[in-house]
Amino acid sequence: MPRSDTPRLPAGGVTRSSLLLNAGWSRHQLDRAVGAGLLTRPKKGRLARRDADPALVYAATHGVIISCVSQAKRRGLWVPHHDRSHAAVRVPGRTDAGSTVLHWRAPLLQREPHSLEDPIENALDLVAHCLPFEDAVAVWDSAANRGIITRQRMARLPLRGSARAVLAALDPFADSGLETYVRLRTQWLRVRCVSQAWIAGHRVDFLFGDRLVLQIDGGTHVGPQRTRDNEHDAQLRLLGYTVIRVGYFQVIDDWPAVQHLLVEAIAQGLHRAAAH
């Protein structure tokens, strides 16, 4: 019989009461913990600590599984801005999840019966069918870049439709969603483009042709980082490279202007090595 008056719940602080009963706790002990405010009952058959993860409590309360964009974000992946949470429905039926986007798609991997979070493979499959193509590829790129998935592993799963198209565009070397967008949006230029190319002791985001460098500034390009970037830009120019540096909002909100810069630079031959 457990010695403490309060059961220890798993990470996240939400579990099924049946698991605690199987572990040796009595219904009386659990009722007493709830009555004392040490535990709560978000839904019949579920128990939670007072400091439990709100997302898990929400999933337990509404009988859903955290998935799609929400699960990708919880796993630390790059995701586009989303105001609404996303969840999967385990069993078809009446489910009231408020403003949450609900997904009814059959999972690639079977879900553990007591889990409130989808395996990342299931979440990515939903991402591919939920988000616009570029956004979905950016999330998958992030997962591959962090080693959470591999192209080979995902290719062995029964992917269909949009998910197969996203897999075909996957690039594990993309360091951010911004790089994914640029890669997809410049493929039509028919100029060799290398992402994360190593030049003059540092990586550059994109190298077009032999001499045209595109750098994308994210939120970390301030202070010492900005100084290092400026120093590297100077080294690149001394070596004969043309450097175009743009920011997050230019890529997201003003892509035509960025594209025009690249097209103009290529038209001027700035991507070619100087003739000797």
Automatic annotation (TrEMBL):
Gene3D superfamilies: VSR Endonuclease (3.40.960.10). Residues 183-260 form the DUF559 domain. It comes from the Bacteria. This is DUF559 domain-containing protein. It comes from Leucobacter manosquensis. The lineage of its organism: Bacteria, Bacillati, Actinomycetota, Actinomycetes, Micrococcales.
